């Protein structure tokens, strides 16, 4: 018998609220199956299971908020007998676990909603599944929730005992990010490097590629930068991995965390899995998929926990450079700034080139500045020969 | 197809991408990016939706012409042959 616990979906998560179960007692589950939806400070996350097994019991009901690491379901192996009762009688006579069969398993896909809409609906005590999305994509927006709230002014907030209080998620998210970043700055001896890259050729190459593509298949420059960031790691693998407490664990593949701003505030950095094996079109597709799900709910737990390095791109906000804070237990973070026309000297001539500031924040326990410099040099080389990034 | 139809299609595309925006107070002469907090990914999605709705293929070179609501309506009206 194994306990399936509330997973930690990142260094900054303390607890999660179960939104729904996608498994029921007696059901066989396989590693990677999405078995539950958990509401976190970063939105609703599809939780995957880590091992094969048969669901024995569900220990909590939807709506329950539990800390990370607390058992929420019991799984048994193939052929293992069903558990009849808890092995030890609890002396405090805790409230009985509700009969698992009573928990409805929803067949339909979960309601897609923006984090702001989810928060407001929780404040109002409104069931999101009863709100019709006005957008074509079927994602419930804050405006949809407000419309319903106005149509039904006398919404009574009925809270079942034991349910989580309406969360102020923006504040909770800031607190969670703050805790993770404080841990990072407390424990990780950062060093910082920066370089200015000539991206004129890379931009021209991409523009030419995009001119031949249908609108829906155009690749953003950000995707090209991600591709370069992943490939350059082959030369300096010690930037790609984790420092879980003692010692560096270099990761065998690149799960590229991408900082994504959420509407209405907040930040999430889910991973593009095996980024080094994807071409630029595949990176673009993966990026589009991640951004869409980050903003509508539906990131998967593995995407929030697997990142081996993170890239942040603040160029769109006009920032020239960003020296980021490493997301523990990762050991490096790459920052891209704004593309800017600058006077540039090449072969003794001054010319105007499109340039970009790239920075590396890295963990000095895992790498040294010289190796970090090699990484930025590799990035520069790749962007000077963009056809190799296709 | 009138300019009003183009405007409606634009607002529809924008609001499906940035549903939290306040479209009642949207200024026609100011950059959409700043007013609606849309990034290049959102912008690409708006272009994709305009392509689906109006069958106009906006090239990357023309993206700047969609910077404000007014300029976008002008640009799309020209592309669609709609008179002012």
| Basic shape of chain B | globular
Please identify the structural class of chain A as seen in this structure. alpha+beta
Determine the structural class of chain B based on helices, strands and strand pairing.
Answer: mainly alpha
As a percent range, the share of strand residues of chain A is 15-25%
Q: What would your notes on this structure say?
A:
By secondary structure, chain A is α+β, with helices and mostly antiparallel strands. Chain A contains eight helices and 20 strands. In chain A, 26% of the residues lie in helices and 25% in strands. In chain A, strands 9, 12, 15, 17, 18, 19 and 20 form a seven-stranded mixed sheet that branches. A five-stranded mixed sheet of chain A has the order 7-2-4-5-16. Chain B has helices at 3-17, 32-36, 40-54, 69-80. Chain B has a single domain (3-80), classed as Orthogonal Bundle (Non-ribosomal Peptide Synthetase Peptidyl Carrier Protein, Chain A). In chain B, 31% of the residues are buried. Chain B has four helices and no strands.
């Amino acid at each position: 018998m194994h306990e399936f616990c509330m997973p930690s979906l990142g260094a900054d998560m303390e607890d999660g609220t179960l939104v729904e179960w996608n498994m029921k007692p007696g059901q066989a589950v396989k590693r990677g199956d999405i078995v539950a939806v958990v509401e976190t400070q970063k939105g609703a996350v599809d939780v995957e299971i880590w091992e094969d097994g048969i669901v024995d019991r569900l220990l909590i009901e939807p709506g329950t908020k539990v800390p990370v690491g607390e058992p929420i379901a019991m799984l048994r192996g193939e052929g293992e007998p069903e558990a009849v009762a808890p092995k030890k009688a609890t002396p405090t006579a805790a409230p009985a676990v509700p009969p698992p069969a009573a928990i409805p398993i929803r067949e339909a896909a979960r309601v897609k909603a923006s984090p702001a809409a989810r928060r407001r609906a929780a404040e109002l005590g409104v069931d999101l599944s009863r709100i019709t999305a006005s957008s074509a994509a079927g994602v419930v927006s804050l405006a949809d929730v407000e419309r319903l709230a106005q149509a039904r002014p006398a919404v009574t907030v009925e809270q079942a005992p034991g349910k989580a209080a309406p969360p102020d998620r923006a504040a909770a998210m800031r607190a969670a990010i703050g805790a993770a970043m404080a841990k990072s700055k407390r424990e990780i001896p950062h060093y910082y490097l920066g370089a200015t890259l000539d991206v004129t050729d890379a931009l021209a190459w991409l523009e030419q590629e995009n001119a031949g593509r249908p609108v829906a298949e155009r690749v953003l420059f950000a995707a090209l930068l991600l591709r370069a960031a992943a490939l350059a790691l082959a030369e300096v693998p010690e930037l790609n991995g984790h420092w879980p407490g003692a010692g560096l664990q270099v990761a065998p593949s690149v799960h590229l965390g991408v900082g994504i701003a959420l509407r209405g505030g907040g930040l999430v950095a889910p991973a593009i899995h095996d980024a080094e094996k994807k071409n630029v079109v595949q990176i673009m597709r993966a990026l589009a998929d991640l951004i869409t799900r980050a903003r509508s709910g539906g990131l998967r737990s593995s995407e929030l926990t697997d990142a081996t390095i993170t890239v942040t791109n603040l160029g769109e906000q006009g920032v020239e450079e960003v020296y980021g804070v490493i997301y523990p237990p990762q050991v490096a973070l790459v920052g891209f700034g704004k593309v800017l026309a600058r006077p540039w000297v090449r072969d003794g001539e001054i010319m105007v080139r499109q340039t970009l500031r790239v920075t590396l924040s890295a963990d000095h326990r895992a790498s040294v500045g010289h190796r970090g410099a090699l990484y930025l040099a590799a990035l520069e080389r790749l962007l000077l020969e963009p056809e190799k990034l296709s | 197809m009138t300019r009003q139809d183009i405007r409606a299609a634009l607002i529809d595309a924008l609001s499906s991408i940035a549903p939290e925006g306040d479209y009642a107070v949207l200024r026609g002469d100011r950059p959409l990016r700043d007013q609606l907090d849309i990034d290049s990914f959102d912008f690409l999605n708006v272009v994709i939706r305009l392509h689906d709705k109006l069958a106009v293929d906006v090239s990357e070179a023309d993206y700047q012409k969609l910077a404000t609501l007014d300029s976008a309506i002008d640009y799309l009206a020209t592309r669609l042959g709609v008179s002012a």
